[in-house]
């Protein structure tokens, strides 16, 4: 697959899907859903110029530190963390770039994810301000908050319907602007959900991304996923998220095992290292 990709016989999208599959990710498990990168950083221009490198996100950095000013906070958190019991290793992020709640967050307007979201929120929709209501606002929140590290899901590159409230769900209104949450607010350069998907996919297959995608792959699936390279790249997550970090079979206490399983399922899981 690598060779095919290098020879440009398969697209960036196909390559990412194949890597996800090999690393144990699947559409059938919300806790291990395929993970895709944020690839753009320009969500405000009237036109999207894919020939300008400045419109793309820096793929060599984890999303939590794409904004340089978050790097200091993240570093300090890692350096100052001490677990008195010695069980929990140091980490940069207490949240994860891919988990079940995040998938439901993005897909809230489409079933069965709507129902799953409502179940997760004890029988109602989460408050409107916390919902996925605008792509530019979601990006801005990522830039402002080093604890928000959600990457994307594959749907952002082929499925315009998830951006529309076709079922007419009552998703509430934003507290400050009183704006009703309905269809997802798109970047200025996108004239419709279809147009957004078309341009976003074009961006994914662009020359710039083709030349830099391997840097992101190193972080998520490759050598910068753990060990000294991960520490250096500010890419260390909570210990439970890594494959093989916890031997569930060795836990004799049923309650403890259930608690850990729940944590792993809800918290997010780092893909198998390829």
TrEMBL record:
GO terms for molecular function: protein kinase binding. InterPro entries: BEACH_dom, BEACH_dom_sf, BEACH_Domain. One of its GO terms (biological process) is intracellular protein localization. It comes from Aramus guarauna. One of its GO terms (cellular component) is cytosol. The keyword Repeat applies. Pfam families: Beach (PF02138). It comes from the Eukaryota. Residues 1-274 form the BEACH domain. This is NBEL1 protein. The keyword Repeat applies. Keywords: Repeat, WD repeat.
């Amino acid at each position: 697959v690598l060779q095919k990709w290098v020879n440009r016989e398969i697209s960036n999208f196909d390559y990412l899907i194949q890597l996800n599959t090999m690393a144990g990710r699947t559409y059938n498990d919300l806790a291990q859903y395929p993970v895709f990168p944020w690839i753009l950083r320009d969500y405000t221009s009237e036109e999207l110029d894919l020939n300008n490198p400045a419109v793309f996100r820096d793929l060599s950095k984890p999303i939590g530190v794409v904004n340089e000013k978050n790097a200091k906070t993240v570093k300090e958190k890692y350096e100052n963390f001490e677990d008195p019991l010695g069980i929990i290793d140091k980490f940069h992020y207490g949240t994860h770039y891919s988990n079940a709640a995040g998938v439901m967050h993005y897909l809230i307007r489409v079933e069965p994810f709507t129902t799953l979201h409502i179940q997760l929120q004890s029988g109602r929709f989460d408050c409107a301000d916390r919902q996925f209501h605008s792509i530019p606002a979601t990006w801005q929140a990522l830039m402002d908050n080093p604890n928000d590290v959600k990457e994307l899901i594959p749907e952002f590159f082929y499925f315009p319907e998830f951006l529309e409230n076709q079922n007419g769900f009552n998703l509430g209104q934003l507290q400050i602007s009183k704006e009703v949450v309905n269809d997802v607010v798109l970047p200025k350069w996108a004239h419709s959900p279809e147009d957004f998907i078309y341009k976003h996919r074009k961006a994914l297959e662009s020359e710039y991304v083709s030349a830099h995608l391997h840097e992101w792959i190193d972080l998520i699936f490759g050598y910068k996923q753990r060990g000294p390279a991960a520490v250096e790249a500010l890419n260390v997550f909570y210990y439970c998220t890594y494959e093989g970090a916890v031997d569930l079979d060795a836990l004799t206490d049923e309650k403890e095992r259930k608690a850990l399983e729940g944590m792993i399922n809800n918290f997010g899981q780092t893909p198998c290292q390829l």
